[in-house]
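tool_call predict_complex ligand=protoporphyrin IX containing FE
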Amino acid sequence: MTSLNDFLFGIYPYICLTVFLLGSLIRFDRDQYTWKSDSSQLLRAGQLRWGSNLFHVGVLFLFFGHTFGMLTPHFIYEPFIGAGAKQVVAMTSGGLFGLLGFIGVSILLHRRLSDPRIRVNSKTSDIVLLWLLWLQLALGLATIPLSAQHLDGSMMMKLAGWAQSIVTFQAGAPELLAEAGWVFKAHMFLGMSIFLIFPFTRLVHVWSGFGSVAYLVRPYQIVRSRRLGVPAPKSHGNR
Ligand code: HEM
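tool_result ok
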């Protein structure tokens, strides 16, 4: 059991991160025409507005919440908020946005499975991905009553310590999870697995979603005339 624990929480995270980064790079390099969110809005707009918006609002909050919540070293936020209070903030905000995301993904799943036009145009990976996200959100929500049994923040500190040890290549990360219950571990395993399958699904659009923020700061496009004697305009205002 210990060796399985060591593999799942000491080695598997690196397998997932490597496949996530290298796989995304290779897909972008070799298969750019498949790099898209594959919207099904043209097939049917119904249910997409509520489903997709609720899902994206929820999941984007959770993404940033997990990233900053787990990876910010304790000493940075300690002067402002204690571990117990941070846990309560994480549970309430994560619970609220997790619920929004869960309702959203349930609508998306229902829409994808019940509409024959969307169903026939769905790849297996589209359906598997929605089920995995549904299960991951359900498991995340299921951790909240368990966390409520120990509000001192000690378990949250261990989980954050595990994530920080992994990204900073420290030994002994799996031991930090010795006391974590199976719901926490299942949620973490599935979370890592979503990174593993990421490059093989429509999830690659998440890179582009974040990348598009660069348009806010990109320099003006310089447009030069090809006709001789026509002075080139300095720049065009359209970004
Ligand atoms: C970075 C910002 C993001 C942008 C700009 C974005 C944009 C989009 C767009 C335009 C679509 C197609 C239309 C639709 O079905 O709503 C889509 C679909 C989808 N997105 Fe995102 N997205 C982002 C982040 C994410 C994240 C973080 C996840 C999950 C981890 C995610 C998962 C999905 C899924 C599963 C679908 C397909 C929904 C369906 O079944 O129709 N997206 N996204």
